[in-house]
Amino acid sequence: MRMPSSLAAWCTVLFFLFFGLSTFVSAIPMAIAGILALAAAVFTFIGR
After folding, report:
1. Conformation bin of residue 20: beta by default, left when phi > 0, alpha when psi is -120 to 50
2. Staple 15 to which of 10, 20, 36, 41, CB 3.0 to 4.6 Å?
3. How far is CA 24 from CA 29, 32, 43, 44, in A?
4. Cα dihedral angle (31, 36, 38, 40), rounded to 10 degrees?
């Protein structure tokens, strides 16, 4: 498995990780997933 090379890919991976974990562990706030989703969109548009 290759590691992601862009910031947008990292934010996407972390979003799905936190979103998936939050369904099982309620201690993880959904705000983290929202911030990561917003960061993925911004970095995708910036192109980094």
Report:
1. alpha
2. 36
3. 12, 15, 28, 29
4. -170
